[in-house]
Amino acid sequence: MRLPFLPWGVAQSLLLLSVLVCLALTSRSVVAEADFVDKSFALDIAPASEIKAPVPGTLIDANSVQQFQAILDPVLAELIADGKLSILVAESTSFPTHPAYLEATKKYSIGVSLGEEPGEIHNYIAGRPFPDIDESVLRAGEKLAWNMRYGYAPDENEVEKFYWQYRNMRTGKVERNLEMYGRMLRFKHRHTTDIVPDLPKNPSEIYNALYLRVNKPPDIANTQLLIHRQEDDTRKEQVWMYHASQRRVRRLAAGQTTDAFLGSDIMIEDFLGFNGRIMDMEWRYQGSKWLLMPMYRHSELMDSGEGDFKLIEFAGEGGCFPDVAWQLRKVHLLDALPRDSNHPLSKRSFYVDAQTSLPLLGRIYDRGEKLWKLSIAGVSDSRYHHLNNQDWQGGIVEAVSMIDLQAEHCTTLQLLPRIPDKPFRTNLFNVQYLRASGR
């Protein structure tokens, strides 16, 4: 292109100079972005001038809780003050991030954007969509919700040891025991397992599939659940259940995902922290702070020795709370308000770990805006977990509590996730498999 009013040689020189300047600026911006991404995945230590961190090994109970109000969720602090649980403080440690997820974030996040309508995201390929979350970021709540949705997790995941217990919080009686099996497969936005980033032959455009099967007790054995989370958030998730007593597959209506799952305190919408559509909620970012969260190193809590790997136990009133250590972590506070006035909840509040994007603690409010449930997810560093998981390089959710504070009842989950020995076949996640395995 010839620049006007300049000799051709001068115009060429200026054009070349402008190109070089643009390339230099682009190069610097990419380097700056990479540096920023590294910082966003690093452990953010609480400033000593503002936060008085307890010494590792401190036991916070009813006698000492007042000293630590500033670093405790208010509901949790009240439960501790009432003598319903105590928590052990551990050293704050950095959790690993798989290099493939980190590199994908550096490579792709700069091009990701939200659409004009809720639930629309553009140009997402892999990694963390939005590594820049703070008070200054436009639509920060919605972006944080997408970070949770696309947080690092294994592309393929299996849970062979999976125990659900329904507990009376007042008496401590275990009313029901379920032994289950679970597996999960990411069809899209994969990072580490064989085919990346997307599996071929996915005409339904499934993002993620989840399969659950009940093994015990006999009265509901072989009951199965299959969930297809769609890539397009404007499409409803597809949910099917095989009822062993009826020997048939039934597709669940959207409203049934907020019913109690198998009589527990957990809804299907509660799975994985939040198993709903981004577009169905109004997401409000409420800032960040340093709070104690249930993150730890499993092998430093429980020595399995030469025997089998020991699952996390539960303690406190009714045996409703994961018996784990708690670290001081920087967390983002996120509220989700249903857009549908017929939804059974008025609000979900999440504490999302800034380093891992995992929702660790949650409060659930009923339609009358009264606190209903408290959810807790115990998360171990994979490097200090089962041998099969040490290459995972992330946080392993291995103990979950859903506590109904109004009914004084809880459901606790013990699980041992692991990478499967060989890649899953996609036909393990279709409706035909439910029918075939249910016979």
Account of the 3D structure:
The strands form three sheets. The protein has a 16-stranded mixed sheet that branches. The chain has a two-stranded antiparallel ribbon with strand order 3-4. It has six helices and 20 strands. Helix content is 17%, strand content 33%. The chain has a domain at 148-438: outer membrane lipoprotein receptor (LolB), chain A, CATH 2.50.20.10. Strand 3 (113-114) and strand 4 (121-122) form a beta hairpin. Helix 1 packs antiparallel against helix 3. The longest helix is centred in the first third of the chain and has 33 residues, at 8-40. It is of the alpha+beta class and 439 residues long.
Unreliable segments (pLDDT under 50, ≥5 consecutive)? 1-6, 19-29
Number of strands: 20
> What fraction strand?
25-35%
Query: Roughly what is the average pLDDT, rounded to an integer?
Result: 92
Task: Map the helices and strands.
Layout: H1 8-40, E1 59-60, H2 74-81, E2 87-89, H3 99-108, E3 113-114, E4 121-122, H4 140-149, E5 156-168, E6 174-186, E7 206-216, E8 224-230, E9 238-243, E10 248-251, E11 281-293, E12 295-296, H5 298-301, E13 314-315, E14 321-322, E15 325-338, E16 345-353, E17 359-366, E18 371-381, E19 395-404, E20 409-418, H6 431-438
Parallel strand pairs: 2-15, 12-18
Antiparallel strand pairs: 1-2, 3-4, 5-6, 5-20, 6-7, 7-8, 8-9, 9-10, 11-15, 13-14, 15-16, 16-17, 17-18, 18-19, 19-20
Report a brief summary of the structure.
With 439 residues, this protein is an alpha+beta fold.
